[in-house]
Amino acid sequence: MPLRASRTTPSRCLLRLGSCGLIEVISPFDPVTQAQLRRIRPTGRWRAQAHCWEFPLEAAGALQELLGARFAIEPDLAQWIAWLRQPLPPLPPHRQLVAAAQLEDPLPDGRQLFSHQRTAARWLLARRGAILAHAMGLGKTLTALVAARALSRCAHCRIAVVAPVGLHGLWRQEALALELAVELFSWARLPAELPPAGTVLIVDEAHFAQNLGAARTRALLRLARHPRLRAIWLLSGTPMKNGRPVQLFPLLAAIDHPLGRDQLSFEQTYCQGHWRERGGRRHWQASGAERLEELHRLIRPLLLHRRKQDCLDLPPKRRLVCPVALSASHALGFEHELQQRVEHYRRRAARGEVRRDAESLAMLTALRQIGASYKLPAAEDLVTELLAGGSSVVVFTAFVAPAERLAARLGGALLTGRLRPQERQRQVERFQAGRVPLLVATFAVAGLGFTLHRASHVVLLERPWTPGDTEQAEDRAHRIGMAGPLTAHWLQLGVADQLVDGLIASKAERIDLALGGRQAILRRQALPAMVRQLLEAW
User: Fold this and answer.
1) Of 147, 357, 370, 504, which is most buried with the most CB atoms under 10 A?
2) Both 154 and 199 in a single domain?
3) pTM higher than 0.85, yes or no?
């Protein structure tokens, strides 16, 4: 049956391409049509909020046969269907791709791939969709580019990379070292289409797409389902940053893992998904975690996770918890500020103004911000002592004001979101070149993508409440090229810090179970509930 493409305003009976790359069927209610749509294979689902049916692209033929005479087809969907009918030629066999990768040969700049990188490149070349979840510092960027170069040589496809803007310089540098042409896109500006010749799509920091409601996640899924996509490889050292399996679902959907085809079933099975009454309305909750060993077994064929200790003989990393003792006057001031915040919270709770799920997190952030300010004298003393011993030090904090105050007192380089990307790189280069022995930075900026292996000490003024962000920060320094052991100092003041540090350990257990298959005893308690208990016991 011929295609009918509509260039006018969408009619009430319409087939169109949705924002996630799925076919949307728009029509007024008709029991006969509804019954027919339920019999379409591959199966679709009814999206009540959008008032439409949603089907995978593979159902286009059946939908067109059923509805083509009555429903208009929008031009972009018509183009996708035409491409679907004219697929790209098959890729060469795996052994030919591996041979084209030349994994044993020195790279054009003289470097040699590590054993774990060669293994990962061969693994990627055997999969059209995959998640490379090596720990930070194991060279995922170079690994993915070497594998993509083989596909480019054998299939003449282009290589597109999605990465945060701050990491584009690193990708250009590595691509230049391989004498490889790549197209770079930021997460804020993903392309809507891919060229007809075929594309290998590499997605760096893929955990940016962990929220199905976000526009960037929907845009990535649209690219992942494009008929002209040759392969999609997601790179993330923290695919479950917050220890919640629900964060894995968009990534599994992007690589077309069977578990990523039915969101409701996934959340019911692995995320403790259930309906909950709140404010007289039903809300879907899927923030839990269960059956993680089963989840690990099922995702293992398409997710490769390696820790540093499994791959490299790096100098050791150790963590030291450093309790902060305040002077009598500072202790009184600290307790007074905390008490003021808690009393303010209680007054709002008494007036019914507190949202149980959101307010407690805001309260915890406020407590941590107060603590960061009162920990500055201890941080200054510790850093001064380390610098006097000839060490290079990186200090991380979640808040800009303490970072600026500490840098103003101690000197060194300062790295926050107030700097332009080019200036951020210059600050890192100052530190890495040895022109300054200290770098003071925020987690949000320096905890992503930069190499800081000159540091022998990392001081965390406080910790993010996701273990992935904490690991990211420490592993900026614990990586290939470091000259000696690394010590991470966790400054800890009061129960708020103790709560976050305990939460990190609990979430890390979930991640180990889901990604690494390692045994653990889960301590399950939601963060808002923990904060409410803290405030009630104050």
Assistant:
1) 147
2) yes
3) no
